[in-house]
Design a protein that fits this description.
The chain is α+β, with helices and mostly antiparallel strands. It has 13 helices and 24 strands.
């Protein structure tokens, strides 16, 4: 097939690599320097919807895979489908599951999906009231901006004062702009988080192996939240827990979407907190492949993902196409100086071996070309992903490659994969 991958991050690089291993003809828009080694890149921005539709038509593209959440929330998949182009990714109605925390929490409550008690606030006074009510028994709360905030619109508050300050930053100071015009005040569920991604054609789910993200910037899960500093796949979650997540969260979601007449063809990415009693609680949905979760999932994937996504886009996803390498995959993110606040860009990156010669898969997440030099162009710059028979072996291989990468001021967690493998 001729496949168009929309996006320029590590997730899109991993998808592009996977499609090319099955000999698909891949075009990327706009792509990145790593993707240029595998496919033809066209300099069209992800928000240039009309240009993307016109290019897909002109090229005779048979499948479009939309990587980032922004264009999905803005309705790009709807425009592509209206032009008769098979597209993997939900329309704007379905993408609200990620684009609006208020919509998603109300959806969970409506359809009986286990989620933390919450309140919606559009003013500081309403937020203060909700914080007081939800912390009355000594519990902690989480403050979430309603709209998209690049993975940074969530504050886990240790005290009610911290929660009130976070709500004011969003509602009054507008730290996240219009994305923080409404906030969710949510009781904190304590436990261990797991990411479970499922492909769907709107009727059936193909659940992928679970992954565990490391969201805090620093070792020991310290420091500010980021978009993710590394991942392990498969995660610690066993078959019984995954069965509960499917039965209590993913399947009711699919039924709820159908009941609400939302035609959802894409990824349902569930961020799930598992409490001390082993019960799963849905924190949030993303409406696309995760980053950096996709990188280790793709590294273990065997089979033709392009065929599966094309079937899902048509509403008839094939079963049994994907199998999994028994090894463990570990992804270590190399981030820029200043990330996640104000990442420094333009630093020259050295020490990278050619993609096919490296003992790990090095996926570009935030890179650009400046003349002959490869430079940083985002907060998370590279995702170094390696396979091993054990977590220890995969870690060692990934960190061996990370050690060779030269990026001034880089930030790297040294403990990816060191959590207890059993919850």
């Amino acid at each position: 097939m001729k496949i168009l991958v929309i996006g320029s991050g590590g997730r899109e690089h991993a998808l592009t690599w996977e499609f090319t291993t099955s000999d698909h003809d891949v075009i990327c828009a706009p792509g990145n320097p790593g993707m240029e080694e595998l496919a033809r890149c066209v300099p069209i921005a992800v928000d240039a919807h009309e240009a993307l539709v016109a290019m897909a038509r002109k090229e005779g593209v048979e499948l479009v895979v939309v990587g980032p959440e922004g264009p999905l929330v803005a309705g790009l998949a709807d425009k592509l489908r209206a032009a008769g182009i098979a597209t993997f990714g939900p329309g704007a109605a379905g993408a609200r599951l990620e684009g609006s925390k208020v919509f998603s929490k109300q959806f969970f409550a409506k359809h009986g999906i286990p989620t933390a008690p919450f309140a919606v606030a559009t003013s500081v006074a309403a937020a203060d009231t909700a914080i007081a009510e939800l912390t009355a028994g000594g519990e902690q709360v989480v403050i979430k901006a309603d709209g998209l905030a690049a993975g940074k619109g969530v504050v886990v508050a240790s005290t009610p004062d911290e929660a009130r300050a976070a709500a004011r930053e969003m509602l009054e100071a507008r730290r996240f702009g219009d994305a923080g015009a409404s906030v969710i005040v949510e009781r904190r569920i304590r436990g261990r988080e797991v990411s479970v991604l499922a492909l769907t054609d709107g009727k059936r789910l193909e659940i992928l192996p679970p992954a565990e993200d490391h969201k805090q910037l620093l070792d020991g899960d310290q420091g500010p939240n980021t978009g993710g500093m590394g991942t392990v796949c498969p995660a610690w979650a066993g078959a019984e827990l995954l069965g509960r997540i499917a039965a209590e969260i993913l399947e009711p979601t699919l039924r709820g979407l159908a009941a609400d007449k939302i035609d959802y063809r894409g990824v349902l990415y569930a961020g799930v907190m598992v409490d001390a009693a082993g019960a799963p609680w849905l924190l949030e949905y993303n409406c696309r492949f995760g980053d950096p979760e996709t990188q280790p999932i793709i590294a273990r994937m065997e089979g033709d993902l392009g065929t599966v996504l094309a079937g899902a886009a048509r509403g008839d996803m094939p079963a049994g196409e994907l199998t999994w390498d028994p090894r463990v995959a570990v992804c270590v993110v190399v981030a820029a100086a200043g990330y996640p606040g104000a990442p420094r860009t333009g630093d020259v990156i050295g020490g990278l071996a050619p993609f096919d010669d490296s003992p790990a898969l090095v996926f570009h997440a935030g890179t650009a070309r400046r003349g002959d030099a490869l430079v940083s162009a985002g907060g998370r710059v590279l995702g170094v992903t390696a396979l091993g028979l054990t977590v220890e072996l995969a870690r060692a291989r990934a960190y061996e490659v990370v050690a060779q990468i030269d990026l001034p001021g880089r930030q790297v967690r040294t403990d990816i994969g060191l959590r207890d493998p059993v919850a």
